[in-house]
């Protein structure tokens, strides 16, 4: 009973934009709390307003600094801004990344800026499960814009980036061969490209190479979006107004032709599927499912059953006793 | 018909240890081929013999060189050896890793060594789904030992490492702060620790620090396994016999007290669950499931349904029409 009241109160406070309540709700997401079901039901009518910007790029291009500068640029326009800094390489490097976050303290006392580092705890589908729910909290808390910052070096980041309305890919001059490899994947996901540290040697070359690589992609019809390539010096706040301008232009373009709805629908579907898969995984790992899985694994281990046939039996069992493990 | 014959023939050739057939079966795993069901059914009675060694560590410690040297050490003992080099950070860095693999060419002409780089294609649960099935192919092909080499920098690698009978954690002297962070996670998964590049300054310090950190872990009862810390110079093949000795000791210890069976049962259970989850995910994404998911996502997007309630409905639909999307 006390629990129910807590959730209702917490949700009311988060909807009113109280940072501590927002932080606690995101903690519930990180912890995969059983209270989330109630939280998300209460938040649902208040979501769908935030514009979600994904910001990704290889390590060392200045993502945190750029995020912070982008927050400043949006604050000048009076927007309430949320930041989710997602670190898929955790549990190993969480500490280091947090140290990196020092520049964010520029916004530490601004009540209209919510900043949260989030790590996958390695359960329940990880970030694909947690990120959209944390976004939902920031959305319901009245954020006009939410920036999802990820390290762009792997599959999970691509998935996270695909959860955004608009994806900004950040590069920097002179990053060596590593970036060449990274670019291949990164070229497919950017709506806006930014060459940060544009005051350094090689910025022009990087922008030119990028332009060249983008031009090699599939040919675009005249109505389609052509990703702009911008230059910034985020540490001095230079060029960020142009980034905001490009983002707003992309958003307007998407809203006009229906792409925005398509992307949001896709994001919500991925969120629902991640929750459903996590629930099915829980059911498999629960007492009944677990006993069944162990028995089947024993038969596979001794060679009398193959793993596909065992998987069929595992699923058939779930279907036979759908609620067996979910009862309290 | 022709297809059935191909699979049967391919399996027969792989069981006879023909490298090209082994390679093609692992390609089927990478491609998540529908033929796998038939392949795994045919392989099942011939698996369960291989000793699986996981080898992990941060980038730059000499994993490829160590794997190659370990292969040599096992070859001296007359063992048939398989290597699965797993790269979870693909699609972005696959190319680079392959370049790294040059030392493996020492074994390129040895008919009793199977080497395969494997990347997650980002579907069907990725490496958690593919790795155990690729292992199964190498096992059935008569490998006495299979070495699974992974980059130790994230959650998925920990999962892959947990699929091994014995996990070797590789470190090197003077790797800076990055390793300090990595160590925290790595300390929980190693059965054998190896400080490679032991001819370099700082090797003794690294070994001592490691010993200290391991001693801070949960206290062990006298019967439990105490992970040894060994030193190697893999590029010159030094110290590898001692690594093989430690591995055989660990295997014997596990076999004597039942740990080996427990780990294999756990590995098989994870394999079966990964296959079942991938099948459920496929079913969700199939025509019937997809229409249902889109309709639910629309209601969540407009705020009239929360994502948990939508996930419940999605699962209920799967359970109602279990076979709807799996019929040909």
Strand ordering within the main sheet of chain A: 3-2-4-1-5-6-7
**Largest interchain contact:** A-B, 78 and 76 residues
Quaternary state of this entry equals: homodimer
The CATH superfamily of the domain at 47-257 in chain A appears as P-loop containing nucleotide triphosphate hydrolases
Task: Please compute the radius of gyration of chain A using only Cα atoms.
Answer: 22 Å
Largest sheet of chain A: 7 strands, parallel
Structural category of chain A: alpha/beta
Principal-axes shape call of chain A: globular
Can you describe what's shown?
Two copies of one chain form a homodimer. The first copy, chain A, has 328 residues and is of the alpha/beta class. Chain A has a domain at 47-257: P-loop containing nucleotide triphosphate hydrolases (Rossmann fold, 3-Layer(aba) Sandwich). Chain A has 13 helices and seven strands. Chain A has a seven-stranded parallel sheet with strand order 3-2-4-1-5-6-7, sandwiched between helices. Chain A starts with a helix and ends in an 8-residue tail after the last helix. At the A-B interface, helix 3, helix 5, helix 6, helix 8 and helix 11 of A face helix 3, helix 6, helix 8, helix 11 and helix 12 of B.
List keywords for this structure.
Rossmann fold, disordered C terminus, 13 helices, homodimer
How would you summarize this macromolecular structure in one to three sentences?
Two copies of one chain form a homodimer. Helices cover 53% and strands 12% of the residues of chain A. With 328 residues, the first copy, chain A, is an alpha/beta fold.
């Amino acid at each position: 009973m006390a629990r129910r009241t807590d959730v209702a109160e917490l949700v009311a406070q988060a909807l009113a934009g109280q940072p501590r309540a927002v932080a606690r709700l995101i903690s519930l997401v990180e912890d995969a709390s059983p209270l989330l079901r109630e939280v998300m039901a209460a938040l649902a009518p208040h979501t769908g307003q935030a514009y979600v910007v994904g910001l990704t790029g290889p390590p060392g291009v200045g993502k945190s600094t750029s995020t912070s500068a982008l927050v400043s640029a949006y604050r000048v326009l009076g927007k309430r801004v949320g930041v989710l800094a997602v670190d898929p390489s955790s549990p190993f490097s969480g500490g280091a990344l947090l140290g990196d976050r020092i520049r964010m303290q520029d916004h530490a006392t601004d009540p209209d800026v919510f900043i949260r580092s989030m790590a996958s705890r390695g359960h329940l589908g990880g970030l694909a499960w947690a990120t959209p729910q944390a976004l939902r909290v920031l959305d319901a808390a009245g954020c006009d814009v939410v920036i999802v910052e990820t390290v762009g070096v792997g599959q999970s980041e691509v998935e996270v980036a695909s959860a955004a309305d608009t994806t900004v890919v950040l590069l920097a001059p002179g990053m060596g061969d590593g970036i060449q490899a990274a670019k291949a994947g990164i070229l497919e996901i950017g709506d806006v490209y930014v060459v940060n540290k544009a005051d350094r040697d090689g910025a022009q070359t990087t922008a030119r190479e990028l332009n060249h690589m983008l031009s090699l992609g599939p040919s675009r019809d005249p109505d389609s979006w052509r990703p702009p390539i911008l230059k910034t010096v985020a540490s001095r706040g230079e060029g960020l107004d142009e980034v905001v301008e490009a983002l707003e232009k992309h958003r307007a373009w998407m809203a006009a032709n229906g792409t925005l709805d398509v992307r949001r629908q896709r994001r919500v579907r991925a969120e629902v599927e991640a929750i459903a898969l996590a629930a099915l995984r829980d059911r498999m790992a629960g007492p009944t499912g677990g006993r069944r899985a162990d028995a089947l694994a024993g038969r596979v281990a001794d060679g009398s059953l193959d793993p596909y046939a065992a998987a069929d039996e595992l699923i058939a069992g779930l279907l036979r006793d759908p609620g067996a493990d979910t009862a309290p």
